[in-house]
Design a protein that fits this description.
By secondary structure, this protein is mostly helical. Helix 1 runs antiparallel to helix 2. About 0% of the residues are buried.
């Protein structure tokens, strides 16, 4: 019976060692999964931040283009207004003049929206 107990104790010892090895292997796998998950998240975050920065830059560019367009439109309207005044016509009261002024207001609205979007994008954190 003593021999049988020794055999059982050795079997138990081998199973305990085997279980301990599996436990270590599982822990290593869990650590690897954790590292991989962290890497996936960090890469995605970096890409998202880059895209947000790119979008912010595009809105800033939009604002600059709209400002240039507004300036061009103002110059044209000033010349048109001066010529009309020389002829005794109030351009602002004509359909063309009102259309021009409405377009100018829309451009200004788009400028404000572009600035607002740029500001929001700069503040956005991933």
């Amino acid at each position: 019976m003593n021999t049988l107990n020794k055999v059982y104790s050795k079997l138990n010892s081998e199973k305990k060692t085997e279980l301990a090895n599996h436990k270590i292997e599982l822990a290593k796998n869990a650590i690897e999964f954790k590292k991989e998950a962290e890497q996936i998240y960090n890469n995605s975050k970096k890409e998202a931040e880059s895209e947000i920065l790119n979008a912010s830059s595009k809105m800033k560019d939009s604002y600059k283009k709209l400002t240039k367009l507004n300036s061009e439109m103002d110059k044209i309207f000033e010349r048109f207004d001066k010529m009309a005044k020389d002829l005794g016509v109030d351009v602002r009261s004509t359909k063309v003049g009102k259309t021009y002024l409405d377009a100018a207001e829309e451009i200004k609205d788009y400028q404000i929206k572009s600035q607002s979007a740029e500001s929001k994008l700069k503040k956005f954190k991933v």
